C-alpha cells in the first residue's frame, strides 16, 4: 500500500504491533499515525499498514469511552 493512497483521517492498523491509528500525515516514506482519542504520533512504513475493520474501529472507540468514564484520559 502506498503512503499517498491513504487519505488523512483513515483508520489503519500497524501490523508490527497491532495498534490502531488514524492517518495524520505523510512525512517522507512514512505515514504518521495517532491513536484513537489522541496521543503521541508514531511513524510507520506503508508496507506495515492495513485498513482497520469496522470491529477494530468500534473496539478502539469503546476502549477510549471506557477509559474516559474511569477518568484515565481527559
Helical content band: 10-25%
Write down the CATH class.
Mainly Beta
How many whole angstroms does the radius of gyration measure? Answer: 12 Å
In the CATH hierarchy, the third-tier topology is known as SH3 type barrels
Characterize the biggest β-sheet.
5 strands, antiparallel
Structural class: alpha+beta
Tell me the β content: 25-35%
Enumerate the strands of the largest sheet in spatial order, edge to edge or round the barrel: 4-3-2-1-5
Shape: globular
General description of the model:
This protein is α+β, with helices and mostly antiparallel strands. Helix content is about 20%, strand content about 35%. A hairpin with a 2-residue loop joins strand 2 and strand 3 (about 30-35). The protein is globular. About 10% of the residues are buried.
Question: Any key phrases for this structure?
Answer:
74 residues; alpha+beta; SH3 type barrels; five-stranded antiparallel β-sheet; 5 strands; globular
Helices and strands, with pairings:
Blueprint: E1 11-14, E2 19-27, E3 30-35, E4 42-44, E5 49-51, H1 54-69
Antiparallel strand pairs: 1-2, 1-5, 2-3, 3-4
Please outline what is shown here:
This protein is an alpha+beta fold. Helix content is 22%, strand content 34%.
Amino acid at each position: 500500500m502506498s503512503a499517498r493512497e491513504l487519505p488523512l483521517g483513515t483508520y489503519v492498523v500497524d501490523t508490527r504491533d497491532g495498534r490502531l491509528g488514524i492517518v495524520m500525515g505523510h512525512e517522507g516514506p512514512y505515514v504518521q499515525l495517532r491513536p484513537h482519542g489522541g496521543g503521541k504520533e508514531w511513524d510507520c512504513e506503508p508496507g506495515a499498514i492495513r485498513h482497520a475493520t469496522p470491529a477494530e474501529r468500534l473496539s478502539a472507540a469503546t476502549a477510549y469511552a471506557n477509559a474516559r468514564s474511569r477518568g484515565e484520559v481527559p
